[in-house]
Amino acid sequence: MTEFRGVYPAIVTPMTEEGSLNEEALRQVLEFNIQRGVHGFWVAGGTGESVLLTEEENNRISEICADQGQGRVNNIMHVGANTTVQAARQAEYAARAGVQAICAVPPFFYGASDEAIVEYYRVVGAAADLPLFAYNLPGATGIDISPTLMQKIKDGVPQAAGLKHSSTLFANIGVFAEMGLSCFIGMSGLMLPGLTIGACGMIDGPPCVAPEFWVKIFDAFNKGDVEGAREAQRRANAVIEVVVGIGSFPSSIKYAAGLRVGIDCGSARPPLSPLTDDERLQIHNGLDRLGLLKQDD
User: Fold this and answer.
1) Fewer CB within 10 Å, N side or C side of the chain?
2) What dotted CATH number matches 6-289?
3) At residue 14, does pLDDT exceed 80?
């Protein structure tokens, strides 16, 4: 697996009732997605609660995902941190664990300069010496990676391969593609239009609940079946309405993924909120209406 394109669910991090990493549940959610044709995973990103996990937990997750994938999928491990030293340390560990690529949000909170951001990515990239993807998540980091900044990263970081673009500046997808970068759209509800302007694929949380719909979008688009892709996107968006529109993120996605796989994935780690009993019922009923809770699933 050397090509980075297609459907990459931003995988959840299942927790036990006590709030620790549930390794068996993580393996089952990964395998559920692999069996439904995903091309890779975005590991320990926003949906995976990376910033709420310890460094040791993040490292263990990289080991589990690499082991479960066994060369069948590409794992892009998020190693971003507010200190360059920690991010580089996690990158080095992820590479040893056997992931295929790393990714990182830019350093946040202090509002780093372009030069500082490039240096951060240079050190992190060198620590792993794997393809590196920037994570453009301005809603959380306060930094919108523009084409100008991304060009600086590309020029200064030999490992730079692309980015996950979770910005509302949708048109920049085409610009990034023209720069020769692998640009994943980070909004699963806009996967199809993203593909039409140059996105190499999609990374987001909702697909880990029903990956088959997004795989159908990708396959139909690449076969030139625009109507088939549009219908798959419509069905995918109905899933988003249930798993994002009810309750708090990412507890809602964890619960929905658990329902489909048949295992309890727990709640998000505090200070994020758990679901109420009513929200759980709404999500269950919503997935049931969509035909996603059949026994043969």
Assistant:
1) N
2) 3.20.20.70
3) yes
Q: Using CB atoms within 10 Å of the CB of residue 218, give its burial: 0 to 12 exposed, 13 to 18 middle, 19+ buried.
A: buried
From the CB of residue 196, how many other CB atoms can be counted at a distance below 10 Å?
13
Note the pLDDT of residue 3.
Answer: 85
Task: Look over the chain and give the mean of its residue pLDDT values, rounded to a whole number.
Answer: 96
Alpha-carbon span 5 to 3, nearest angstrom: 6
Burial class (CB in 10 A: 0-12, 13-18, 19+), 223: exposed
pTM listed for this prediction? 0.96
Count CA atoms within 13 Å of residue 67 on its CB side.
Answer: 12
Strand, coil or helix: 164: strand
For residues 85-89, give the mean pLDDT: 97
Domain ranges of the chain: 6-289
pLDDT digits (tens, 9 = 90+) for 112-122: 899 999 999 99
Summarize the confidence of residues 250-258 as an average pLDDT.
97
Beta sheet of 101-104, edge-to-edge order: 6-9, 201-204, 182-185, 160-165, 132-136, 101-104, 74-78, 40-43
Whether the CA torsion 163, 181, 43, 279 is positive or negative: it is positive
Within 8 A by CB and 6+ apart from 150, the residues are 134, 163, 176, 179, 181
Contacts of 289 (CB under 8 A, 6+ apart): none
The beta strands (E) that lie in the chain are given as 6-9, 40-43, 74-78, 101-104, 132-136, 160-165, 182-185, 201-204
* Residue 183 DSSP code: E
And the tokens for 293?
Answer: 């809770």
The torsion of the CA quartet 182, 112, 172, 205, rounded to 10 degrees, works out to 60
| Interval 214-233 mean pLDDT | 98
